[in-house]
């Protein structure tokens, strides 16, 4: 399938509005202007109440304090208990000098502590920076120094990583370990919050939906990650979109097993569920057999995952005997869901809701209803309610149904900017429309189909991999003269990396050497699984590698 030529580097750009469409409650109060009944006159006064994400837990605690909110292992928290713990963390951050706009990094496995940190920072207007624990130390070091957090909270499993990072980021004044097993001088989270007030925090500046909420780093095509600044309003509107699409409610019990450092798990599952008042059950790290047990015992009604997670669940001995009758639907994203996998779960009475999203849209762009899962295999559905999608040609003109072009997105869920990247921010927008970099088309019924992914990116096990990062590492290998990396199909992970390498003249280089070199410098999922050797790579006169040619020659 041919992919059309798309927009140029800087054509047709216009200034973007600086703020998203705010979600506000507007009230009118009646003010008495005179105490004399005869002379009394009345005047309507408009009062604006700005909300923030931190108020979600406060309001649920006020209304239904004894209902279950979050369960992690043997710990089950009522709405009141969950909010009290959030308040203690928020007051702890204030005592530590964290103020509105300041950043706090978390290198955490899934747990109640991750969510408590998120909502505590929301209440005081500070910003969460989730760190991908699959990254190598040099990759984490770059993100931490770029975002300049004042506090870093980490899980004991990642103590060795933190040891390697410690002292390299001058802004980090305090390290806190989630539980026992951290560095001797770092307080445990429970110890740190134990003497903090459970009262609602009183920050000097009240946070609003126009304030930054999360900085989520996404790999850049130039080899450096960039932080998408997600506003509190982006998270709020994404939750509204999710509730409209999936009908989340307080009657649901959702389970979290995908890593919360990803926008998908955080904003496709965690925040919409908690906004709706759903009971939220957390699995620390994904375990296929373990998650099936949780679903059956906790009577789970929905779960988010990437296709490979559901595939791994279906391949366990426990799958056939597990009772999935409580499930309303599974949400799947990250990569297309194979028809065979959909049919496997349909045999057990379980339907998939599929969707398309990205970090920059916090996350949802389109959703495919479960009743369309088989009829529209390959589609990622229709735009969610409060989001607009266009398909345009090189001149930013809308194309007809069936014609391919670049996908543009607009809505109150779209990020504000890339952190400290004004030029890249400007290049990513035309007015309020975000260029996704993805190519797709609408069919005659208005269903969106993706044709090609953002530039040369591929997705391995739900993780975005940009070849430029891998190529940059391999070009530092003294035995490598040239290299191009592409994604190739894989039955287990969807796609894996293939490195096509040109060895330096007079050197001997093996596949094992190339892979081993990457293992010490890249996250595991970025390390190429296969290596091919060639005498030269196909390039344009400008020097750019012809990835299309590489895919044509090596994909099969």
Overall pLDDT level: 89
- The tally of domains stands at 2
CATH topology of the largest domain: Rossmann fold
Q: Output the radius of gyration.
A: 25 Å
Q: Give the overall shape, derived from the CA principal axes.
A: globular
Give the name of the CATH architecture of the largest domain: 3-Layer(aba) Sandwich
Main sheet properties: 14 strands, mixed
Protein structure class: alpha/beta
| Total DSSP E strands | 28
Considering the protein shown, what is the CATH homologous superfamily of the largest domain? Answer: ANL, N-terminal domain
Indicate the low-confidence ranges by residue numbers: 8-15, 17-48
The percent of residues in helical segments reads 25-40%
Query: How much of the residues is beta strand, in percent?
Result: 25-35%
The CATH class designation of the largest domain is Alpha Beta
Output the number of helix runs: 15
Euclidean distance between termini CA atoms:
16 Å
What does this structure look like?
The chain is α/β, with parallel strands linked by helices. It has 2 domains: 55-373 and 386-442, ANL, N-terminal domain (Rossmann fold), CATH 3.40.50.12780; 458-554, 2-Layer Sandwich (GMP Synthetase, Chain A, domain 3), CATH 3.30.300.30. Helix content is 27%, strand content 27%. The protein has 15 helices and 28 strands. Strands 3, 4, 11, 12, 13, 14, 15, 16, 17, 18, 19, 21, 22 and 23 form a 14-stranded mixed β-sheet that branches. Helix 14 (511-519) links the parallel strand 27 (494-503) and strand 28 (530-533). Helix 2 crosses helix 3 and helix 7 packs across helix 8. The chain is globular. Mean pLDDT is 89; it is low at 8-15 and 17-48.
């Amino acid at each position: 399938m041919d992919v059309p030529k798309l927009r140029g580097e800087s054509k047709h750009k216009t200034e973007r509005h600086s703020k998203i469409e705010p979600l506000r409650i507007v009230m009118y109060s009646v003010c008495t202007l005179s105490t004399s009944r005869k002379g009394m006159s009345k005047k309507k006064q408009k009062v604006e109440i700005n909300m923030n994400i931190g108020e979600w837990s406060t309001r649920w605690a006020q209304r239904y304090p004894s209902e279950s909110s979050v369960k992690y292992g043997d710990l089950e928290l009522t709405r009141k208990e969950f909010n009290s713990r959030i308040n203690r963390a928020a007051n702890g951050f204030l005592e530590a000098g964290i103020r509105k706009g300041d950043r706090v990094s978390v290198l955490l496995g899934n747990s109640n502590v991750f969510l408590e940190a998120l909502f505590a920072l929301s209440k005081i207007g500070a910003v969460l920076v989730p760190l991908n624990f699959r990254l190598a130390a040099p990759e984490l070091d770059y993100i931490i120094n770029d975002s300049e957090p004042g506090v870093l909270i980490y899980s004991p499993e990642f103590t060795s990583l933190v040891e390697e990072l410690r002292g390299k980021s001058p802004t980090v004044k305090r390290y806190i370990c989630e539980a026992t097993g951290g560095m001797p001088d770092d307080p445990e989270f429970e110890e740190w919050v134990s003497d903090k007030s459970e009262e609602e925090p009183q920050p000097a500046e009240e946070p609003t939906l126009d304030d930054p909420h999360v900085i989520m780093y996404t790999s850049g095509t130039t080899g450096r990650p960039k932080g998408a600044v997600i506003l509190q309003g982006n998270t709020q509107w994404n939750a509204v979109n999710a509730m409209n699409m999936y009908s989340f409610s307080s009657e649901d019990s959702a389970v979290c097993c995908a890593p919360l450092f990803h926008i998908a798990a955080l904003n496709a599952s965690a925040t919409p569920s908690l906004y709706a008042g759903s009971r939220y059950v957390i699995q620390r790290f994904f375990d296929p057999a373990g998650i099936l047990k949780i679903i059956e015992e906790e009577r789970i009604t929905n779960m988010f995952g990437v296709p490979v997670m559901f595939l791994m669940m279906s391949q366990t001995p426990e799958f056939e005997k597990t009772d999935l009758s409580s499930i309303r639907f599974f949400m799947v994203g990250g990569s297309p869901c194979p028809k065979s996998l959909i049919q496997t779960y349909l045999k057990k009475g379980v339907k998939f809701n599929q969707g398309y999203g990205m970090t920059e849209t916090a996350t949802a762009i389109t959703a495919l209803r479960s009743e369309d899962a088989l009829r529209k295999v390959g589609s990622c559905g229709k735009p969610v309610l409060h989001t607009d999608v266009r398909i345009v040609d090189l001149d930013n003109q809308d194309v007809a149904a069936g014609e391919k072009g670049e996908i543009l997105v607009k809505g109150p869920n779209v990020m504000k900017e890339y952190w400290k990247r004004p030029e890249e921010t400007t290049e990513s927008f035309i007015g309020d429309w975000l260029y996704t970099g993805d190519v797709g088309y609408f069919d005659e019924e208005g269903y969106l189909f993706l044709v090609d992914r953002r530039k040369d990116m591929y997705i391995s096990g739900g993780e975005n991999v940009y070849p430029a990062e891998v190529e940059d590492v391999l070009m530092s290998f003294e035995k490598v003269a040239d290299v191009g990396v592409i994604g190739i199909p894989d039955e287990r992970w969807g796609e894996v990396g293939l490195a096509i390498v040109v060895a330096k003249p007079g050197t001997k280089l093996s596949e094992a050497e190339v892979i081993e070199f990457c293992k010490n410098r890249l996250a595991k999922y970025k390390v190429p699984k296969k290596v091919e050797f060639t005498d030269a790579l196909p390039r344009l006169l400008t020097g750019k590698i012809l990835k299309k040619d590489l895919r044509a020659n090596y994909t099969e």
